[in-house]
Design goal:
heterodimer, A: mainly alpha, Multidrug-efflux Transporter Regulator, Chain: A, Domain 2, 3-stranded antiparallel β-sheet, 4 helices, 4 strands, B: alpha+beta, Helix Hairpins, HSP40/DNAj peptide-binding domain, 3 domains, 4-stranded mixed β-sheet, 9 helices, elongated
Chain lengths: 102, 314
């Protein structure tokens, strides 16, 4: 049915607060708190916040964890921090595994 | 329609309380949530658990589900007479999934409670693309075939297949997520459409392992190549190159070929690392054996020198 080729959003172009809220399903208060926790990174002032495109994926992940486990915002912040830490360690582990003889 | 046993999926009895259903869901979700479990099939399992919970946790949907009666999971069945008109307008057409039905039902329920033209954002479409290293280098287009529930003019549901093609630019890496805003399922009541998300996974390559934009290659050397140095042919994604191994090469040492990794989004590329391995022959002929014996008696090299240095007793 759809015949055209879909072009993904540029990973470098910023996303504004309204778009982040719509895409993630997080409430504005939750986003503000996650920014305060230092989990979501924002550019600009409170009036004109914008976010790096990758924040959309973090925020969606936070919302899924909230819905599945009934987490509050500090819980989401903690879970995201741990998950990102695990992923960084997994990347490092893969790097080290590449150095081992197979 | 294929029957799904939502109680069995959650591992609870048909008389389970709301609290028991919630507990079972939380326990299974903790086990199979894709952010937690890396087990194969965990994601599918989590989807099934969520679908079951979505229906059984809502009293109205649970009642409708219970009235479908008991069937075996996967069994073809028809809802009892009158079921569809009490819970749903019109007969479902063709290959409608139970999940579509209950999702739409919830949607109708929330519509009734709120304003009739309550704007709802469309569904997000999520998919995974497994790509080869070659596809990542040049960029590619992936085609997804997706069943999409469509509403017919009489208000009934029908599953239609929709083809979605997505341009994957060069420079993506394993685990990256692409987002195509506003091209997911259509919104209703004036709501905006959902988004499309595509997860990129790299297919394992025979020779190269990718870490971010860097590639790693095991580079085996003979003992004499390692000692004397050598010029060896090394494969890269764009053909073979000749590389000089310096004399005295050690196992585990990394030989860096700058810019021979995966291309980056904007410009430039990661590096290719040849990880040196020193490999010994499993079988040798008589002549080789003589030469090794001669080397053994001529050499004073002792890699275990430090073991007992300064030891007062063994």
């Amino acid at each position: 049915m759809t015949d055209d080729v879909l072009i993904p959003a540029d990973a470098e172009s910023p996303v504004d607060l309204a778009e982040l809220l719509a895409a993630s399903g997080l409430a504005e208060a939750e986003v503000l708190e996650l920014v305060e926790f230092g989990v979501l990174e924002t550019k600009g002032s409170v009036s004109g916040w914008s976010f790096h495109a990758r924040v959309v994926h973090q925020a969606r992940r936070a919302a899924t964890l909230r819905d599945t486990f009934g987490l509050n915002t500090p819980g989401m912040a903690l879970a995201l921090t741990y998950l990102e830490r695990i992923e960084a360690l997994e990347q490092r582990l893969r790097e080290l595994q590449c150095l081992l003889p197979r | 329609m294929k029957f799904k046993d939502y109680y069995e999926t959650l591992g609870v009895g048909r008389d389970a309380s709301e609290e028991e259903i919630k507990k079972a869901y939380r326990r299974l979700a903790r086990q199979f949530h894709p952010d937690i479990s890396k087990e194969a099939g965990a994601e599918e399992r989590f989807k099934a658990i969520s679908e079951a919970y979505g229906t059984l946790s809502d009293p109205e949907k649970r009642q409708a589900y219970d009235e479908l009666g008991r069937h075996h999971a996967g069994e073809d069945f028809r809802p009892p007479p009158g079921w569809d008109t009490r819970f749903w307008q019109g007969q479902p057409h063709g290959d409608v999934d139970l999940a579509d039905l209950f999702e739409q039902m919830g949607f109708r329920a929330s519509q009734r409670q709120a304003r009739p033209d309550f704007p709802m954002r469309g569904q997000d479409i999520e998919a995974v693309a497994e790509l080869s290293l070659e596809e990542v280098v040049h960029g590619t287009t992936v085609t997804l075939e997706r069943p999409v529930p469509q509403r017919r003019p009489d208000g009934s549901l029908e599953r239609q297949s929709q083809t979605v093609r997505i341009r994957v630019p060069k420079g993506v890496t394993d685990g990256e997520r692409l987002r195509i805003p506003a091209r997911g399922g259509p919104g209703s009541g004036g709501g905006p459409p959902g988004d499309v998300y595509l997860d990129i996974r790299l297919r394992p390559h025979r020779l190269f392992q990718a870490v971010g934009h860097d590639l790693y290659l095991q580079l085996p050397l003979t003992p004499w190549e390692a000692v004397l140095g050598a010029e060896v042919a090394v494969p890269t994604l764009d053909g073979r190159v000749r590389v000089t191994v310096q004399p005295g090469a050690q196992a585990g040492q990394k030989l860096r070929l700058a810019g021979k990794g995966l291309p980056r989004r904007q410009e430039g590329a990661g590096d290719l690392y040849g990880v040196l391995q020193i490999v010994t022959p499993r079988q040798i002929n008589e002549r080789e054996r003589e030469l090794y014996l001669e080397l053994a008696s001529a050499s004073s090299f002792d890699p275990r020198q430090s073991f007992f240095a300064g030891a007062t007793h063994d």
